[in-house]
Every structure is written in structure tokens, then in C-alpha cells.
Amino acid sequence: MPRLSEVDRHRAFGLFQAGLPISEVFLRMDVNRTTIFRLRQRLHETDTVSDRPRSGRPRCTMQSKDRNLVRNYMNNRFFSASASSRQTKERNNPRKSAKTARRRLSTPGIRARSPYIGPILTQCHRHQLTLWAQEHAAWDRIQWRSVAFIDKSRFCIDHADGRVRVWRRSGERYQADCVREHDRWGGASLMMWGATSYNDRIGPVFSTIEGL
């Protein structure tokens, strides 16, 4: 038996107000007697013919599973949601969907974003960079006029870099386990060079590099 529409509920409500008994109402509405009885009971209890508030569909994962999911992604930031769905079991289903994994991670503010691509840095490199920053933190404008900053970008020619996502919170873009390190040398590529100083700008300059 299909559920009564909102229009039919108000029609039944009008018949109740007219003083008709339940036996007469369900015959006129051509519905089950129990449906009309429950509708009148709801009207007496809530003064409305609308459905009662519902809790919605129950969660397919327990809170302990959700905490374990977040912990796994914090240990492996580049773990894909589809791979997680194949490993994590639901309460009543051996597998959960990748969409469910994304919803559980979005609750603590974790979302998939494009990772920052940075050069491979050892602990020695990081130490030297920190020392350089500390030594130049107090430089004034006159001292910086004699400095030129040079940078380069590499564009792959023989293969695509691919699409990679990292699970992180806002403000974690440059966190060590959220950075995708890669070797800038390897495979045919096009290099673009440029430099800038206080009073001048050089570039861009292009050069082709064959794979090593």
C-alpha cells in the first residue's frame, strides 16, 4: 500500500473535522484502515498530519572505525579513498564506498588537495636553509639590492606527471608528510629559467633537456 501524499493527508484531516468515523474515511480514501487510524492518532498527538522527525539512515561505520580511518590517513597522506574502501569493513557490509571514506575524513577538516611539489631535501639541506634564513632575517633594503633570485621550472615532454591527491587539513600544505618529493632530473623535459632582483628582471629563458 503506497504512503499517503500530503494532499491526501489533509483531505483525510478534513473528513475527520466533518465528524466522519474511521470506517467511513478509509472507504472514501480507498486506503488501508490501519493507515487512517495511525494518521488520526498522529493528529491527536502532534496536531499535524506531517511525518514525525526521523533520525535518518544509520551510520555504516562505528566511531572507533572512523577514528582508525583518520589515524591511517595521518600516517599515510597519499592513501587514496578507493584503496581505503577496499580495506575498511562496515558494520553490515564487508566494504564501504570511497564516498563514505571522504565524508568521514571531512568531519575533522581533512580533504584531498593537490600536494606541494618540492625538491628532495635531506636533514642537512633543511639545516643549511634554516641557517641561511636566520643569517639574512635582519637584512635591510640596501643589502637586498645586490641580490638576484633565480628559479627554474621543468615541464615533462615524454610522459604525464599524473594526478595525485594528498589528504591534509588547512594550513598543512608545506608539512613534511604532505609534500610530494621528486627528482627534477630524469626524462626529456623543457626547462624554463628566470631571475629577478631589486631593479631588474631576466627571462624567461628556455632550454631542452634530454633524459639522463
Automatic annotation (TrEMBL):
Recorded GO terms, molecular function?
nucleic acid binding
Q: Where is the composition biased (Basic residues)?
A: 94-105
The name this protein goes by in its record? Transposable element Tcb1 transposase
Q: Where is this region: Disordered?
A: 81-106
* InterPro entries per UniProt: Homeodomain-like_sf, RNaseH_sf
Could you tell me the superkingdom of the organism this chain comes from?
Eukaryota
Task: State the species of origin.
Answer: Elysia marginata
